[in-house]
Q: What sequence folds into this?
């Protein structure tokens, strides 16, 4: 037979899409969560994945965070109440507290990697800032257990600092590159009419 | 090869609309016409259409391999120099192509002749893949054609299979684009989107006009989601010349068709094929306009712009006199001259065979019939069968 054996037009194949890709709504959209509870509530990752990725982030936090010898130095950069004392190799150090994690996927790259996030710097969120992303979280502070996080709290925008020192603003749990422009395609087509052949 | 006149299915319009084929009678003009059907023998299909289609595709790929390394060819095809790296890299990286349609002149005897290659934005795929397939099944069931007939048409299953492997690893979402307000293009894209979904892809449509550019250099859809892979029913030669052309190179976007297909959808392909494979039985003599070699053309030849769609600006010249031409906005980039093929005359009707390739594999046939020997946007799509 020289013809197709069957033709489905029902898009039923959508059911086949249950791969890892389908868990993220966009490829290297970054998923940002303040804690495990927020990650679980968002429903974008399986609960076990949330816990495992937060464990990654916590493990990397003290190792990679910028270290200060006293609290006032740290707070001068990150703001009042955003630092904590940790013991590293038997020595007491002050580091900015773990504020969340970001999951990124590099373009066509495969694996998911969780990075710890730090609180916003004073430069990004000066004291008294009215910017919505700078408002303190309404969750119980300092814990990353499965605390109660309201949907509203998870959906609002929030400022962080990445381990490499960049400011990051997450909106509703995801951080995007911003749209710089539109309309760069289509102009010739409009002068011609049909585009196919 | 015979021209049959089967009865229409009584509810043919409802039958084809059920398949998502809404553009069967655009602006009141018949486009889908099942009161006509062409019948072939299996030998004609396999030896005269399928095998030569695969062979022509090999010639074309040999041409691409040469052209990407040859700036004289890229210039002659009017590819803007700034786009050469994009075209070249897409070929060197082995970016896979989805589909294409060779237009062939064939009347049942002798070798089919290549008229042109719609390699970038071919259309009439839903008609060929689905609508004529369903016509065959229901017309056989209704006794309108011989039971036991077959059709050269595994386009659908080849498309689904091709989408499953076209980008590895699969992108998080495959975006599809065409111009807003062109219903037949939107219908074509919706069908291909369905095929991709059946292959397991998440898909989303975005009009070409609303594609955006992100601050990090990637393209994005209307909702701001980055576009990792984009099926575009919008020709490369336009994208190469629009404002976002400069952004193509660093967009990290995989395009379907890939940029190297721009070398095949260009009529300049035809003189180069004739130069590389002179005398090939499935090729017509062809030359760039102004080439002294064009003196070898016969007394009837066709003048075609390098870049043109739907037969626009194509003229038939006989003994130096223009016999038939179609107006249009093309021609700025130059013309080629090609020996006039004999388009078979079936009682004043001229069928042109669209021989489909999916992932470079020959897999089906769609026929457009016109009252003139130049296929135009006004030609009718008619189904075919392989006789029992």
A:
């Amino acid at each position: 037979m020289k013809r197709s054996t069957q033709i489905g037009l029902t898009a039923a194949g959508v059911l086949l899409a249950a791969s890892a890709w389908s868990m993220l709504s966009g490829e290297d959209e970054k998923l940002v969560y303040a804690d495990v509870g927020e990650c679980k509530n968002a429903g974008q990752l399986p609960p076990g994945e949330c816990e495992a990725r937060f464990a990654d982030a916590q493990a990397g936090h003290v190792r990679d965070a910028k270290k200060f010898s006293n609290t006032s130095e740290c707070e001068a950069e990150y703001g009042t109440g955003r630092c904590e004392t940790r013991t590293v190799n038997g020595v007491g150090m002050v580091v900015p507290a773990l504020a969340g994690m970001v999951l990124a996927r590099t373009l066509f790259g495969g694996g998911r990697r969780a990075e710890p996030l730090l609180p916003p710097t004073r430069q990004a969120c000066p004291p008294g800032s009215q910017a919505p992303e700078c408002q303190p979280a309404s969750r119980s502070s300092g814990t990353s257990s499965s605390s109660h996080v309201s949907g509203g709290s998870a959906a609002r925008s929030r400022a962080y600092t990445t381990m490499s020192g960049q400011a990051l603003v997450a909106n509703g749990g995801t951080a995007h590159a911003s749209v710089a422009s539109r309309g760069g395609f289509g102009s010739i087509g409009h002068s011609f009419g049909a585009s196919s052949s | 090869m015979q021209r049959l006149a089967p009865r229409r299915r009584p509810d043919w319009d409802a039958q084809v609309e059920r398949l998502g084929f809404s553009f069967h009678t655009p602006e009141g003009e018949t486009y889908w016409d099942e009161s006509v059907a062409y019948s072939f023998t299996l030998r004609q299909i396999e030896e005269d259409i399928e095998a030569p289609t695969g062979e022509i595709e090999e010639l074309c790929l040999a041409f691409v391999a040469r052209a990407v390394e040859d700036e004289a060819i890229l210039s002659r095809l009017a590819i803007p120099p700034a786009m050469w790296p994009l075209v070249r890299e897409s070929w060197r990286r082995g970016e896979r192509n989805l589909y294409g349609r060779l237009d062939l002149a064939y009347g049942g005897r002798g070798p089919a002749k290549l008229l042109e290659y719609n390699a970038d934005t071919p259309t009439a795929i839903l008609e060929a893949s689905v609508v004529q397939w369903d016509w065959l099944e229901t017309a056989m069931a209704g006794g309108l054609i011989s039971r036991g007939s077959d059709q050269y048409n595994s386009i659908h299953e080849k498309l689904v299979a091709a989408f499953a492997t076209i980008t590895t690893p699969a992108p998080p979402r495959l975006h599809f684009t065409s111009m807003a307000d062109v219903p037949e293009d939107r219908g074509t894209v919706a069908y291909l989107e369905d095929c991709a979904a059946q292959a397991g892809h998440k898909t989303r449509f975005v009009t070409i006009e609303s594609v955006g550019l992100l601050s990090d250099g990637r393209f994005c859809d209307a909702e701001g989601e980055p576009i990792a892979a984009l099926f575009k029913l919008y020709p490369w030669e336009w994208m190469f010349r629009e404002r976002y052309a400069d952004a193509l190179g660093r967009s990290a976007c995989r395009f379907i068709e890939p940029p190297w297909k721009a070398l095949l959808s260009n009529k300049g392909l035809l003189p180069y094929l004739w130069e590389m494979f002179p005398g090939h039985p499935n090729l017509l003599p062809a030359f760039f306009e102004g080439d002294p070699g064009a003196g070898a053309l016969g007394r009837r030849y066709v003048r075609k712009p390098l870049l043109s769609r739907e037969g626009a600006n194509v003229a038939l010249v006989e003994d130096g006199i223009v016999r038939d031409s179609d107006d249009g906005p093309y021609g700025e980039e130059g013309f080629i001259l090609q020996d006039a093929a004999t388009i078979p005359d079936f009682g004043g009707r001229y069928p042109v065979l669209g021989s489909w390739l999916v992932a470079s594999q020959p897999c089906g046939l769609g026929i457009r019939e016109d009252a003139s020997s130049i296929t135009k946007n006004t030609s009718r799509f008619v189904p075919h069968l392989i006789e029992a």
Summary: The first strand of chain A starts at residue 30 and ends at 33. DSSP finds five helices and nine strands in chain A. Confidence is low (pLDDT under 50) at residues 10-28, 105-111, 139-155 of chain A.
